[in-house]
Write a structure and sequence with these properties.
Elements lengths: L13 E9 L2 E6 L3 E6 L13 E7 L2 E7 H4 L12 E7 L2 E7 L1 E9 L3 E2 L12 E6 L5 E5 L1 H8 L22 E4 L3 H13 L5 E4 L2 H15 L9 E4 L8 H9 L9 E5 L7 H6 L4 E4 L3 H13 L1
Helix pairs in contact: 4-5
């Protein structure tokens, strides 16, 4: 079964969520990340790995890790059955399968229907990155699949250590970084100064960043570029996504020349056109920090 991706115009602040279940949890994943949905297949076991890494799934001569979300979310092994499904995903330039109990349907929603989880579950340890309130009153929890891969192998989520530290070249330019992930925020707090850019501000979503930018325009007018030199934004964020933020910036008479880099796990050849259509200057796939550092330097030099 292939995931039927509803074609959306970029920058409309909409997305499609695939609803699925694990145990008694109703969960969701952005349809953009889904390649196909399969029945559970035999796997090749891998010795000495995390217990929730079920093995290797051979799919059309390609070996993919099969991650057992039932075990990862600490449900008893008895919860697994022959009717389970596998959601095959692609993001962070990486393909993987995730075992779940059931797949329900696709919902088209606006990002402003996605809310940040309450403080007691919103942390670097949590795998829940958003709460979606559907029209029928039900709640779907959006899973942080990037964090799950990071828990298997941290190299899949952080290559910032590959960037050489700039000892003598330090820029006074000011950068805005927009991403709702506490893990990514922490990485960028180390990465940006290391890359030579100690002046930056971090926002959790596009609305926060947009309000800050508007305030800077009110204070500085056309001199806003003295306060903001560059925007780096994720795509998936509650309230306002990175495509919509980029579109608002590029359609603004004063801001249209403000450089925007989309830094996301969703940058693939199939999806790159979405960022191009809203005017992004560059798009970099997570976790390629070396390329990100090179592009920041290039845009700042201009």
């Amino acid at each position: 079964m292939a995931a039927n991706n509803i074609l959306l115009e970029s920058g409309t602040n909409e997305l499609e969520i695939l609803e699925f279940s694990v145990g008694n949890l109703t969960l969701g994943i952005n349809v953009i990340k889904v390649k196909e949905i399969l029945r559970v297949m035999p796997v090749t076991k891998i010795p000495e790995t995390k217990p929730f890494l079920e093995g290797l799934l051979n799919l059309r001569e390609e070996n993919l890790p099969l991650i057992d979300l039932i075990s990862y979310l600490e449900f008893p092994v008895e919860q697994k059955n022959e009717e389970d499904k596998v959601i095959v995903t692609e993001f962070n330039q990486f393909k993987a399968g995730f075992r779940v109990n059931n797949v329900a349907r696709i919902h088209r929603i606006s990002w402003d229907q996605l809310y940040k989880p309450p403080g007691f579950v919103s942390s670097e340890e949590s795998c829940i990155i958003g709460i979606i309130k559907l029209d029928e009153g039900r709640i779907v929890q959006l899973l942080d699949f990037e964090k799950i891969l990071f828990d298997i192998d941290s190299r899949l989520g952080d290559m910032s250590h590959e960037v050489a530290e700039k000892e003598n070249t330090v820029s006074d330019k000011f950068i805005l970084f927009v991403d709702d992930s506490p893990t990514l925020q922490k990485i960028m707090e180390d990465f940006l100064p290391k890359a030579g850019y100690p002046n930056f501000k971090i926002f959790e979503n596009g609305i926060q960043a947009w309000e800050y930018i508007k305030n800077m325009i009110e204070k500085n007018g056309t001199d806003v570029f003295e306060e903001i030199s560059l925007i780096i934004t994720d795509i998936e964020m509650p309230q306002m996504d990175g495509h919509h933020l980029t579109k608002k910036i590029k359609e603004h008479q004063i801001l249209k020349n403000l450089p925007v880099i989309i830094f996301s796990s969703l940058i693939t050849e199939d999806l790159r056109h979405k960022g191009e259509s809203v005017g992004a200057d560059f798009q970099v796939s997570k976790p390629n920090y070396s390329e990100l550092a090179h592009i920041i330097e290039q845009l700042i030099a201009q």
